[in-house]
Design goal:
Layout (H helix, E strand, L loop, with lengths): L23 E12 L2 H9 L7 H14 L1 H4 L10 E9 L3 E12 L4 H19 L7 E11 L6 E2 L2
Antiparallel strand pairs: 1-3, 1-4, 2-3, 4-5
Organism: Dankookia rubra
Pfam families: MoaC
InterPro entries: MoaC, MoaC_bact/euk, MoaC_sf, MoCo_biosynth_MoaA/MoaC, Mopterin_CF_biosynth-C_dom
Length: 157
Amino acid sequence: MSGFTHFDDQGRAVMVDVSAKAETDRVAVARGRVVMDPATLARIQEGTTAKGDVLGVARLAGIMAAKRTSDLIPLCHPLMLSNVTVDLVAAPPDAVEIEALVKVGGRTGVEMEALTAVMVAALTVYDMCKAIDRGMRIEAVRLVHKSGGKSGTYEAE
């Protein structure tokens, strides 16, 4: 088959062959949020949850997840990431905002790594606070920026 596809000539799922693509600097930014009861957010900010530093642990979990994305998402290329940052910020009265930035110099993009970092950071916030607030919602996880590669730059509205 010609072009980049996840299917071979027999229609079986395969990893896309990116060996002919040029190496470029690639960047992706994803965002999301965890919405919760205002009292839960207050406890996160005060550091009084039973499991400790929620935002610090979630930040580390997001970074670790970005590095392991190819272990989690079928057919995703393993990448030597050059930078991963995950920022979590309290957004009163009732949310934690999450942003992940991922960079690589390579032949394929890092959108999946940025999205995975946000999702795992959000799930970590949920896990660490579920005993006090099972009604939390993970919302609005999306790619907001992508640059590098043949398809060019993408900016979400």
